[in-house]
Amino acid sequence: MTDAELIEGIKCRDRVALEYLVATHQQKVIKTAYYFLGNMEDAEDLSQEVFIGIIDSIAMFRKKSSLTTWIYRITVNQSLNFLKKRQRRAVFSRIGALFNSTRAGYQNSYREPFINEDPVEASELRGILKIAVSQLPENQQIAFVLSQYDDRPYKEIAEIMELTLSSVESLIHRAKMNLQKRLISGFSEYKKQ
Amino acid sequence: MNCKELKENMFAFQEHTLSPERKQAFLIHLDECNECSLIFRQFQLALSTVDADKEAKPSPFAATHILQQIGSHIETRPRYFLMAQNPWIIRPVVAAVSLAVGIFLGINMALREPLPDSGLDPGSPVIQSLKSEFFITDFIEEDKSLTSFQ
C-alpha cells in the first residue's frame, strides 16, 4: 500500500488501511515513545493516543514531509506533552507528600526513580542518564533521543523537527556538552547516597 | 589534559572523534586521576544502557490494544465528524453561509421593528421596496388578520 493510498484509507476510516497503519508503524511509535518516557507500559498507552491523533488529524497532513516523518513528529510531540503532564503530577504529589508527611503518594504517581528501586549500578546509572536527558532543553532532548536512542540520521531528524541540518548538528553537540555536565553532577550525587 | 578537559571530552573520546594526540592525552590522564577514571567508567556504563534500551520489546498484544482503542474511538465519534476531515473546504463555506445569514437577519430585524426615534416610517415606499426585495412579510399585519378571522 502506498502512502497516498494509506492516507485516503485513513481518511475514510477503512479498516484494512487502519490495520496496515498500525502494523507498519506501531513498533517505531512505541519505541520512540519509550525512549522519551523510559517506561514501556506508558509508551504503549501513549501509542494508542498517537494513532488516534493520526486518524483525527490526517486531513491536516499537507504531504510536505513523508507520512513516517509526520508520524514521528506526532509521537515526539505527544511524548513531550506526556512528560510535562507527568512532571506536573510529580510536583503536585510532592506538595501533597509535604502536607501528608509521607512519600507514598509521590511513589505511587510518578516513576522517576530507577535510582531508588534497583540496587544494580547499571540500572541506577540508567536512571541518572534518563533524568539528565529529560532535563535538557526540549529541542536538545528531541535531537539527542532521536539520534542516540532511535538511531535516526541527522537529515531525518531535521525533517521531523523542521530545522536545518546544521541546526540539528549544533543541537546534538550542545546536548552532549550539557549531558556531560549533568551526568557528572548526577554521579557525584549518586556517590553521596 | 586536565580534569576539566577530560570531563568535556568524554563523548568525543567515546565516539572516536578525538585526534590521536588528544586521545593519547585523555588516556594518560585517565591513568593518573582516580576521580576522572571513576567518572569516565560511570559515563561509559550509563551510555551502555542506551543500547540495552534499544533491545526493549513492546508487548506482543500492543497492536491489538491499539486497534481496539481505534475501533472504540471511531464508534464513539459521530459520522458528521468526517466533515471536519476536510476543513479547508468546510471553513469557507461555513464562513460564507454565516455571513449571508447575518446580513439577512440584520436587515430583517432592522426593518421589522424600527426604533421609536429612528424617524423611519414602516409604510414608506423605500421600506416597502426593501421588504419586498428581501422577502420580509409583515407579521404584525398577518397576526391582525388572523385575529379578525377568528
Helices and strands, with pairings:
The complex is a heterodimer of chains A (193) and B (150).
Chain A: H1 3-11, H2 15-37, H3 40-57, H4 67-100, H5 104-109, H6 114-117, H7 121-134, H8 138-149, H9 154-161, H10 165-192
Helix pairs in contact in A: 1-2, 2-3, 2-4, 3-4, 4-9, 7-10, 8-10, 9-10
Chain B: H1 3-8, H2 10-14, H3 20-32, H4 34-54, H5 62-76, H6 87-112, H7 125-133, H8 139-149
Helix pairs in contact in B: 3-4
Describe the protein in words.
The complex is a heterodimer of chains A (193) and B (150). Chain A is mainly alpha-helical and 193 residues long. Chain A has helices at 3-11, 15-37, 40-57, 67-100, 104-109, 114-117, 121-134, 138-149, 154-161, 165-192. Chain A contains ten helices and no strands. In chain A, helix 4 (67-100) packs across helix 9 and helix 7 (121-134) packs across helix 10 (165-192). Chain B has 150 residues and is mostly helical. Helices cover 71% and strands 0% of the residues of chain B. Chain B contains eight helices and no strands. The interface between A and B is large, with 42 and 34 residues.
Morphology of chain A? globular
Q: How much of the sequence of chain B is in beta strands?
A: under 5%
CATH superfamily of the largest domain in chain A: RNA polymerase sigma factor, region 2, helix turn helix motif
Q: Looking at the structure, what is the overall shape of chain B? A: elongated
The total of helices of chain B stands at: 8
Work out the radius of gyration of chain A. 19 Å
Report the span from N to C terminus of chain A: 55 Å
